[in-house]
């Protein structure tokens, strides 16, 4: 067990979702670098610090009780990890307020610690939102492992906050520090919108939504093969993104009951707004969640899923496999999971280990659409 040791604390941290014998750590050298640099500034305990995109709570949990901390980000799993890591290290699980990316924080903040996200649109949106919430002598300190730090991150900080100073590399991590300066008030370019032909929809996408500029090719392959004639079936869109699968399926199944879940707050916000635009006041449940973890067993008839193959920068099928297991638990006997996946990922054989029957509904040169029956 490797502890996360910084001038603020020594913590035992876990990732989320947790898995046995996880070889990956819940922190890295960029987290340590940020906290070391912050500690060197000798801030007053009353100083207000905003932490952005803290994947598993390493930054916020370290600062809890040391400074006045608020954490914010787009990941519901990150929120769960923060609460678990606070509790596991003897602190109240709610001792650090968490503000979802779909909501607005309240400044002013003296320091902002940013883990540079994979999606630079999210960083841009966050930097724009910081305007008017920074103290006059505030600094915005962004950290990342060098291999995950694009030049554009510094450009965005310069554009929206002020002059940027890059640090020396330390353990393959680097920091960018922006000092607040006068900048014109910026209007956010998000959310973006695009049109879909079949069904005819305009889809809204907040900054961190997957494929926010246009429909991804996997979903495009999936749409013509969504189930029909479902009657009043209970349907879940697992990892709903902007809600396009559920909305398209709902239009073809006017009596079906839908639940949409995603771990991204901006995805949930987008899906809720898109559902209302397409289907008005038709009842629906849309919520941020750890997949179907909180759903009652054998309470669904159909699950739709375009599973992810990465978590932040880590590529793998762990999340997809977990979603398949959750779907099986939530489905009634005879219920079905419909998925789309790249051919090379071999989902057919994985699903066959969980479900009694797996059939190929359709295929393109790159994708397969599979139906797995419980």
Automatic annotation (TrEMBL):
Protein's cellular compartments: Cytoplasm
GO biological process assignments: methylation
Primary subcellular site in the record, as a coarse category: cytoplasm
Top-level enzyme category: transferase
Protein name from the UniProt record: Ribosomal RNA large subunit methyltransferase G
Keywords: Cytoplasm, Methyltransferase, rRNA processing, S-adenosyl-L-methionine, Transferase
Residues covered by the RlmG N-terminal domain: 3-180
GO MF, any single term: methyltransferase activity
Role played: Specifically methylates the guanine in position 1835 (m2G1835) of 23S rRNA.
